[in-house]
Amino acid sequence: CLVWQMVKMTLLSNINLKACPFLVRMLQSGEDLEALLKLPPEKLLMRWVNYHLEQAGHKKRITNFGPDLKDSDVYCTLLKQIDPERLATTTILSNSDLLARAAYVVQQGGRLQSEFHIQPLDIVKANEKLNLGFLAALFNASPGLDPPVEEELKLMAELPEEEDAGDSREERAFRMWLNSLGIETYVNNLYD
């Protein structure tokens, strides 16, 4: 459990607005930057996947990192969207063999130099932890988002320098301790 928490923290460490300003592209209509800033990395990752699905004209959206991914449909569409060389395709989806689809996804992830290794069977069995890790590695390898435009950069300039700017040292320490316990929900604010 502790090893997984360390791996998860490493994989998700760059999935935030400070490290990846292009995440501002995923702002939804009527949403302010503060709301996006408060999202935990897992939710940002889910929004990133759904953003690319929407951009591809795909009807499906994910709400979890397990059953929603096991048929590899979402993965194939995502890979096609984020592949800088545009070599990934969705033609494998005509194959009804879920294991063959998943093998294609793993192969394409390796081609994108994803640093997280997952087995096709892990995708088919809907292993949430390994799917989360694989998606985070895909994000880190090739986010596939355009840089923010000038208007979005102005919004980001108004953000506080530190993510925890208004929190006391004790609040940050307590929040870090809570998150190290391995609970499902990521605690990024003690009062929300």
UniProtKB/TrEMBL annotation:
Stored SMART domains: CH
SUPFAM superfamilies listed in its UniProt record: Calponin-homology domain, CH-domain (SSF47576)
Alphabetical GO biological process terms: actin filament bundle assembly; actin filament network formation
Pfam families in UniProt: CH
Annotated GO MF terms: actin filament binding
GO cellular component: actin filament; actin filament bundle; cytoplasm
Record's protein name: Calponin-homology (CH) domain-containing protein
Annotated source species: Coccolithus braarudii
Lineage: Eukaryota, Haptista, Haptophyta, Prymnesiophyceae, Coccolithales
